[in-house]
Amino acid sequence: MPSLPKFFSNLSSTITLQIVSGIVFLFCTLYLAFSIRHPLTFNKIIVGINFKRWQTNGSTNNDITKLLTGNETNVMIHSSNLSSESFICDYDKNNDTHQQTNIVFKNHRLNALRPYCDIVPTPRNTWISAKQYVESDIVFIIYTGASFYQNRAIAIRDSWLSRVTHKYFFSSIPYSPLPITVIEGAGENYMSNMKKLYQGMQIAYQKHKETAKFYFLAGCDTFVNVPHLLKRLDYFNHTEALVIGGNPFVHSCYRQKNQVVQTISYPSGGAGFFLSAAMMEMMYPKLDSFFQNHWPTEKVPYSDVALNCLAYSLGVQPSFVPGFWAFTPEQTLNNQGRLKLHSDSEPNTFHYVPPKSMYILDEFYVFQHVDRLANDNNLNELVKFTRQFVAAHYELLRIKTAECTLPPVKST
């Protein structure tokens, strides 16, 4: 039988343990009640800038789970207090407190990316996605040449075009690092673009006529902001015969090689333009006859003029919309002025963009897009875009691994 002092000692320990357990239980209960009434917040996923914290509702954890598992149906993030920070345009190297950042990127951020803040429009929030069509509804047709494979064509493959589902490079010479579709006998001079384009259109139409909503035509030195571009289609219907572009020029149309039949306004081919599925269906049976019997290719080797004249002969005139620029951002600012360039805050395309600038411009607009989604607290679109970007990035790494050979390591 235990002694009386030992009994009271055990009883005291038991009572103490019960008191501590009761306090812990009470604390957890109060914490749970408080957290339900006042949900926890979490930081925006942006490094290097003092973004405001996201204010979220109580269902945020469930929403994130749905997003990460791919179930994004009807997921909404309710928040307020939109921010207006810019990772590039607000950057000041002298006030950068993130010393762990790579010094090479700091210089690139300041000297290569930041100058665009003074050239192009820089919206910081209030992103509205395209309402009618998604990227995979569009077939992107790029005409190029062998002399551009390792510079211009590779640059667009590695930048904006890497995030495109249906894409074609049409040329006359195969090249395995690029998805070249060979147009036999097209040649490699400027006039070759004519045959590359109209025969390429026939190939693309045959493959995608059941699913494509629009076809977008451009050269290999055209920068395209695809999220902006898609929004231009919000008020159009792919079942109608349409040519959609911008930055109009004027040129004559011909019949039987030398008869001028009409002078038309047409959208700049350098800036790129759309043909609707219905327009392609109308053009398809006419392409060979028009280019072989009517269009004076040697005299007028301009494929954008020719296609718009074909559309005109079929009773279709182009629809002009903002945001298609026929020159680089720098040239457009010099030629058109800030007021005109900034009259539309979401440019679709720029033309004559050199390979190095293609990478920089794409990087600038990727950061801008991420900023806008973060500032809007638009987690749905931010996760969707991040997934797309990461998938494209690693696909490019797989391509680069296959096409690049490192120099041998010298033995000591």
TrEMBL record:
Coiled-coil positions: none
Regions crossing the membrane: 15-34
Top-level lineage group: Eukaryota
Major enzyme class: transferase
Domain (Fringe-like glycosyltransferase): residue spans on this chain: 135-330
Membrane association type: Single-pass type II membrane protein
Pathway: Protein modification; protein glycosylation
Alphabetized GO MF terms: glycoprotein-N-acetylgalactosamine 3-beta-galactosyltransferase activity; nucleotide binding
Compartments it resides in: Membrane
GO CC annotations, alphabetized: membrane
One Pfam entry name: Fringe
InterPro entries: C1GALT1/C1GALT1_chp1, Fringe-like_glycosylTrfase
Keyword entries, A-Z: Glycosyltransferase, Membrane, Nucleotide-binding, Signal-anchor, Transferase, Transmembrane, Transmembrane helix
Entry EC no(s): 2.4.1.122
Sequence similarity: Belongs to the glycosyltransferase 31 family. Beta3-Gal-T subfamily.
This protein's name: N-acetylgalactosaminide beta-1,3-galactosyltransferase
Organism field: Rotaria magnacalcarata
Organism lineage string: Eukaryota, Metazoa, Spiralia, Gnathifera, Rotifera
